[in-house]
User: Which sequence fits this backbone?
């Protein structure tokens, strides 16, 4: 019963989609367990480039796909993705948990408000939807959306939310409420009708698959440092991207997880506000951004770029018990004479090897770097050729970079990405 979890080790955008798509060829089921349409998982197959925000990235491998209860579902986005996958010539075999919560239009408006703006959220309604889940009296679940009592549920919930609807000018006065409910019902009941055949008891399905000896890949969205409990709070998302999130976000026992694969970029990026110890300001940071296409998949915002941060990766390894690493986007570092790697932080005159998540402390941490020799720019088509030939064909300095990281972390790097395509992944 191999249960494999794939998690991001940094601030999200580590190319987990490419790793999941690559691995999906050998698994039976791919399951998303956290986050929502704030994620942007890009999969490139030949000339086809699809961006998934909710659908598990194994969609193009025609595998059983599951969206777990830990995900917040924007039904319109999901419907569009189902159509996108169909248009690409695949019929998604998808099951959405009825326990998952639904992102409603007012959640997105509230998310674009002042508090959320100060955190630099993706404005996809993620925080407000998870807040309502925890409040319990103001939530709408997939079970409500596709059930017989959606209209009553909507009335009940929006009566409680009236104060918020007024505060965010979603409606101007109480008299507009029934019209507003009608409008939402007319749009969302159609989504409910469309999604109904795709919904069911995801927890039972996944557990049965594991008990039958199938291989299940749990796909995390975002990254460890955006975890609401373990990340750089409050500059985090509202879910748990660490490996334990797969247990809660699907309903599987921890002993059913056999392996955790951590995905990291060969450098670090962050989109949105919050501390970033190894950030590179100016020229080289811009060069990495351009070369790596470091712009948000969901929002298009430029990502902040910096050197690889090993205290961050050590922290991620501890929290998710990561036993192997997939290092992505190594090709982006070509043509840099000297590559820095942060091996520890200096804090109050002491060296720290493991990252602290506390923002006030992080802001005072100084990176301690080791410099490694870079490698020259490779010509067009070179990375594809190297990927075909395998690990030994990498420039010696690139191999040294990988082996240095492995020595520092004591965790093997088993997969190396040197481009966005399936064919540009090297497996050791
Ligand atoms: P939210 O998840 O939209 O509430 O945004 C909270 C923080 O997480 C912001 O800094 C976002 O930029 C960041 N964030 C959310 N999802 C992703 C992602 O998939 N990749 C990178 N950053 C993300």
Assistant:
């Amino acid at each position: 019963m191999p249960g494999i979890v794939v998690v991001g080790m940094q601030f999200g955008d580590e190319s987990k989609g490419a790793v999941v798509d690559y691995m999906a060829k050998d698994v039976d089921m791919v399951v998303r367990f956290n986050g929502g349409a704030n994620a942007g998982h890009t999969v490139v197959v030949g000339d086809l480039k699809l961006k998934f925000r909710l659908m598990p990235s194994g969609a193009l491998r025609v595998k059983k796909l599951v969206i777990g209860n830990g995900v917040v579902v924007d039904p319109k986005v999901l419907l569009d993705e189902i159509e996108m996958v169909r248009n690409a010539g695949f019929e998604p075999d998808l099951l959405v948990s009825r326990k998952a919560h639904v992102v409603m239009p007012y959640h997105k408006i509230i998310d674009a408000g002042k508090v959320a703006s100060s955190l630099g959220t993706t404005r996809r309604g993620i925080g407000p939807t998870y807040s309502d889940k925890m409040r319990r009296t103001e939530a709408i679940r997939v079970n409500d959306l596709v059930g017989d009592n959606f209209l009553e549920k909507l009335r009940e919930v929006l009566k409680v939310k009236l104060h918020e609807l007024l505060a965010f000018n979603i409606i101007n006065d109480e008299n507009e409420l029934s019209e507003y409910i009608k409008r939402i019902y007319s749009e969302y009941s159609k989504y409910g009708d469309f999604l109904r055949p795709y919904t069911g008891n995801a927890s039972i399905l996944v557990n049965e698959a594991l008990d039958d000896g199938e291989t299940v890949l749990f796909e995390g969205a975002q990254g460890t440092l955006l975890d609401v409990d373990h990340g750089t709070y409050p500059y985090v998302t509202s879910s748990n991207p660490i490996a334990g999130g797969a247990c809660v976000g699907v309903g599987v026992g921890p002993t059913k997880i056999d392996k955790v694969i951590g995905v990291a970029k060969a450098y670090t990026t962050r989109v949105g506000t919050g501390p970033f110890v190894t950030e590179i300001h100016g020229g080289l940071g811009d060069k990495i951004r351009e070369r790596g296409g470091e712009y948000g998949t969901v929002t298009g915002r430029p990502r902040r770029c910096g050197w690889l941060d090993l205290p961050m990766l050590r922290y991620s390894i501890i929290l998710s018990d990561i036993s192997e690493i997939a290092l992505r986007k190594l090709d982006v570092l070509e043509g840099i004479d000297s590559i820095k790697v942060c091996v520890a932080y200096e804090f109050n005159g002491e060296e720290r090897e493991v990252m602290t998540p506390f923002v006030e402390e992080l802001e005072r941490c100084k990176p301690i770097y080791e410099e490694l020799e870079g490698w020259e720019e490779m010509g067009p088509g070179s990375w594809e050729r190297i990927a075909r030939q395998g690990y030994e064909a990498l420039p010696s300095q690139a191999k040294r970079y990988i082996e240095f990281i492995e020595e520092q972390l004591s965790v093997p790097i088993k997969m190396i990405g040197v481009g966005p395509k399936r064919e540009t992944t090297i497996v050791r």
